[in-house]
Amino acid sequence: LQAIKYSDNKIIKSEYRPFTTLFYYSEKILSDRLTSNHYDFFGQTLDLETKVIAISSGERAKFSALATNKIAGLDFFLPNSAQCFALYRYEYNKETKKYKRIDNLTEWGLNEFINYYRNNTITKEDVFNYTYAVLHYPDYKIEFETDLKRELPRIPFYDDFFKWVNWGEQLMNIHIGYCNAPLYNLKIENK
To answer: How many CA atoms lie within 13 A of 46 on its CB side?
Structure first.
């Protein structure tokens, strides 16, 4: 047996299911779900800023992708499991006791987009937003339906890169900020 000391700091918000935020007690010894990826993406206290694209993987349901800025459970996309890809990851320096934020997209990946579109202004965040738009494109999901059941998504180059970046950014902001969306004025009629 190992004694655990309770700490309010270990209570964090997590994304339990799509658009369902729950409080989570993030004591590693009590969780079989916390992995090194969670700490790489959100730091040791699981509260550092990043955006994550969670995708469903497996053959039991259609492919899905959803952005979050919280840790997502492995069973986020029941009945399929979730795999997450973060915009940033963090390295902790024990000497300075500070985190260094690192872009999670490699220079090689960025250069593939820069070279294809012949545009040096493309950023890693642009590629992240572009990817999010592509993963929601209905024609993409239909064309690669079989592949998406058995392997990680491959991202094609579509025309008008920055149009896709804009769509992906807008969609990601809606998905991440769903709790802060203005209420829609509905009129309920009883018939």
So the answer is: 21
Find out whether 165 and 159 touch, Cβ atoms under 8 Å. Answer: no
Residues 136 and 172: beta-carbon distance below 8 Å? no
Kindly provide the residue ranges of all beta strands, DSSP E only, lying in 29-94, ordered along the sequence: 52-57, 65-68, 71-72, 81-86, 88-93
Residue 100's DSSP bridge partners are: 91
Peptide bond into 79 cis (omega under 30): yes
Q: How far is CA 124 from CA 49, 74, 131, 159, in A?
A: 16, 26, 11, 18
Q: Map residue 13 onto helix, strand or coil.
A: strand
pLDDT in tens, 2-36: 889 999 999 999 998 999 999 999 988 888 778 88
